[in-house]
């Protein structure tokens, strides 16, 4: 039998999968800490010059350079540590850019490695790097040391996050993939909110770096607890190992079955010959050689890019909600939760395609409506702007969650991590481009965000539906058996 049939006998989302998914997704809180603690670690405190005969003159406008700078806020950061002010203030933003570039490269490196050597090995390689770079970044003595470590840290976050999502969704039944995938996003959003609280309690940037990295050490013990992904083993022809893991899952799920009841289909001699004649690894170019997979990938890449531009653009405005940066960050995470609840309730009812298309269209329309609401037009207008901005972010947040789940189902098992890595690369590029739109003004910004979200929602309607469909194992499955997912 095929893997999905065996999984239905083992239990599609029993105790075994719940425990594994919980352990994996809980890592998302720590990944969120790494991604958003830069909002405080690289934050600029207020400062003044304490040189004699200086009376309230702006430090960066002084004719003579100030010899004694005093930072007066209650927190420290790399800005105060390395004096990244005035002509050097761009370096704080540069660190964040280097981090995002690291996230991009991490997805590109970890994705193929996860498909080649397994989910488990690449996961723990990432955890080791995360613990090391986060802790060491708190001991750095120069700006360059810190920037380099954050680049490596970003790569580890991007790669590890990808593996967590793939592992959490590929070994559950089709009807539970939404729940498993959404929980990854929910935990990450909670991590964003929790980071605001952690940063409020720990105002020293070095201690905050230590607190964000030390918990990863405890996760190294999971190497002896978490097994390899049985679906990955089956896709690599390691059927005996896959069956052994499936049988252990069945026992933990309290399913009364025999080992022979979940025997996976062995390849025939002719199929083995075909497999030998084909390359064992799937390169990124393979996604564009044949028409069906090419159409899927082009639409997905554009949708990921659009979601990232709009999501990051709207998130960057979170600081305008009140004057407290810690509360603002917490709200920026919590506002995503209603979107994820909607995904859990509706994705298995209306399907992936309709949900993704509808959410992005909703987000796009909300952004476009913001164009017609003037600034400084009274409290009612401000309330309407806030409401539309939140609707826009919730719509795109839901779309972002759906595209994660949808892409993992559209991609074949043999290249699932690689396909997601390619999609996330386009998202990272979108995230880097988003800040470049803001200088052109609100009208242009919301026009761009609205059109991108709207067009991605329309193009997503051209993708095949995957609700309750078996996952494809190879690109050939997609090319030769596409009718199953139409």
Q: Tell me which oligomeric state these chains represent.
A: single chain
Strand segment count: 2
Which class of secondary structure composition applies to the elements? mainly alpha
Mean pLDDT over the residues: 84
Q: β content, as a range?
A: under 5%
How are strands sequenced across the largest beta sheet? Answer: 1-2
Number of helices: 22
What series of H and E elements makes up the topology? Answer: HHHHEEHHHHHHHHHHHHHHHHHH
Low-confidence stretches: 275-279
The N- to C-terminal Cα distance equals 23 Å
Helix content: 55-70%
| Biggest β-sheet strands, sense, barrel | 2 strands, antiparallel
Task: Please give the radius of gyration in angstroms.
Answer: 24 Å
Shape: globular
Task: Describe the secondary structure blueprint for this structure.
Elements (H helix, E strand, L loop, with lengths): L2 H8 L4 H11 L1 H10 L1 H4 L5 E3 L19 E3 L6 H5 L7 H28 L1 H19 L5 H28 L6 H25 L3 H9 L1 H5 L10 H6 L3 H14 L16 H9 L13 H25 L9 H10 L2 H14 L1 H19 L8 H32 L5 H18 L8 H19 L14 H6 L6
Antiparallel strand pairs: 1-2
Helix pairs in contact: 1-13, 2-8, 3-8, 3-9, 6-7, 6-8, 6-20, 7-8, 7-10, 8-9, 8-19, 8-20, 9-16, 9-17, 9-19, 15-19, 15-20, 15-21, 17-18, 17-19, 18-19, 18-21, 19-20
In short:
The chain is mostly helical and 486 residues long. The chain is built from 22 helices and 2 strands.
Can you describe this structure?
Helix content is 67%, strand content 1%. It is built from 22 helices and two strands. The protein has helices at 3-10, 15-25, 27-36, 38-41, 78-82, 90-117, 119-137, 143-170, 177-201, 205-213, 215-219, 230-235, 239-252, 269-277, 291-315, 325-334, 337-350, 352-370, 379-410, 416-433, 442-460, 475-480; strands at 47-49, 69-71. The longest helix has 32 residues, at 379-410. It has 486 residues and is mainly α. Helix 6 runs antiparallel to helix 7, helix 9 (177-201) packs antiparallel against helix 17 (337-350) and helix 19 (379-410) runs antiparallel to helix 20. The protein has a two-stranded antiparallel sheet with strand order 1-2.
